Amino acid sequence: MSVEQPVRYAYLGPEGTFTEAALLALPEAGSVEAVPCPTVPSALDAVRRGECAAAVVAMESSVEGAVTATIDELASGEPLIIVRELLLSVSFALLVRPGTALEDIKTVASHPVAEPQCRRWLGENLPDARWEAATSNAHAARQVQDGVYDAALAGSFAAARYGLAVLAEPVHDIAGAQTRFVLVTRPGSVPPPTGVDKTSITVGLRDNHPGELMEILEQFATRGVNLCRIESRPTGQGMGRYFFFIDCEGHIADARVGEALMGLRRSSANMRFLGSYPRADGQPPALRFGTSDEEFTAARAWLDDARGGCSA
Question: Does pTM surpass 0.70?
Fold first, then answer.
C-alpha cells in the first residue's frame, strides 16, 4: 500500500522566519510539509514547477509598505493566483550569541524589510553598528550563530532554533506592526465569493497618454469599486515605464468588479488577474447606490428589453 504524501507548501526560509510563522498559522498547517526556500522568487518557482502545491509569501508591511520582490515576481513569469491572505503581528528582537553585550555589537543583520522598522532603535542603542542585509531574518540569525555577524533582527522564536540569546525585545520603532502574507497557487478554481473579498491585479499603461492612469481608475470609480491599494512599479523596460499593482474590494464574481476588469482588459496593457480571495480583516465593502449585483442585473434586463430583441 502506498503512503499518501503530505501537501507541500513553500516559504521563505530557513526555519524561524515570520513567513514560516504565517504558514504555521494556516488552518491546514498540521497536514502540510513546509518547504524552506532561499528567496521569494525561488518559493514561487517551486509552485510553478509543481514541486509545491502552494507558497506563502509576504506581500506588504504596515510600516515599510510593499514587499517588492513578491509584487514583481507575481507580475512576471508564469501566472500564479492568490487564494488566501492572512495578517501576522510582527515583533522584532535583537538576537546574539550567548555572552554578547550591547557594546560588543559591531554588525547587525536582517532582511531589508526589517531594518526600517527598527531604524530608530538601532540609531539610539547601536549608533556605531553597521547594518547588513540578509535574505531573511532567520538567515541573519543563522549567520550570527556561524559568527559572521554579531546580532540579528528577527522574531524571538528564532533564538532557540539557532542557539542564540534575546538581548533586547522589542526593538521595533512602531508597536502593533503587521505583515500581510498571501497563499499562492497555480491557476485553477477561484475561491467562491464570501461577501468580504479582495481582488488583486496588475495593469500597465498602453501608450502613456495624458490621463491614462485616470482612465484606469475610472473603470473602478464609475462602478463603485473601492481600491484598497495602488502601487507603481518599474517595468524594467526603460526609465518612466511603470505598471500598477492594484487591490480592490470585492470578488471577480461580483458584477461591479467583473465589469471593471473587463473595461481594463479592453483598454489597458498587460492586465494580469492575480486572484479574488477572502479578506483577512473581514471588512465588508461599502456598496454605493446602483452598484449591487441586483442593480446590475436589473440594468441588464432593462437594456435587453429596450433593444427589443434586435440583433447586431
Answer: yes
Does any domain span residue 54?
A: yes
Query: Which structural domain range is residue 37 located in?
Result: 1-90+176-188
Chain mean position to CA 117? 17
Position 292 in a domain: yes
Which three-class secondary structure state does DSSP give residue 214? helix
Q: Which cell is 88 given?
A: 501576522
Q: Which residues of 173-211 are buried (b: 16+ CB within 10 A; e: fewer)?
A: beeebbbbbbbbbeeeebbebeebbbbbbbbbbeeeeee
> What is the count of structural domains for the chain?
3
Distance CA 54, CA 224 (A): 33
- For residues 133 and 95, the answer to whether their CB atoms sit within 8 Å is no
Report yes or no on 311 lying in a domain. Answer: no
pLDDT at 236: 81
Q: How many CB atoms lie within 10 A of CB 113?
A: 22
If one counts every other C-beta atom within 10 angstroms of the C-beta of residue 75, the result is 20
What's the chain's average pLDDT?
93
Tens digit of pLDDT for each residue in 188-239? 989 999 999 999 999 988 887 888 889 999 999 999 999 999 999 988 887 8
φ, ψ (nearest 5 deg) of residue 306: -65, -30
121 and 194, same domain (yes or no): no
CATH number of the domain to which 101 belongs: 3.40.190.10
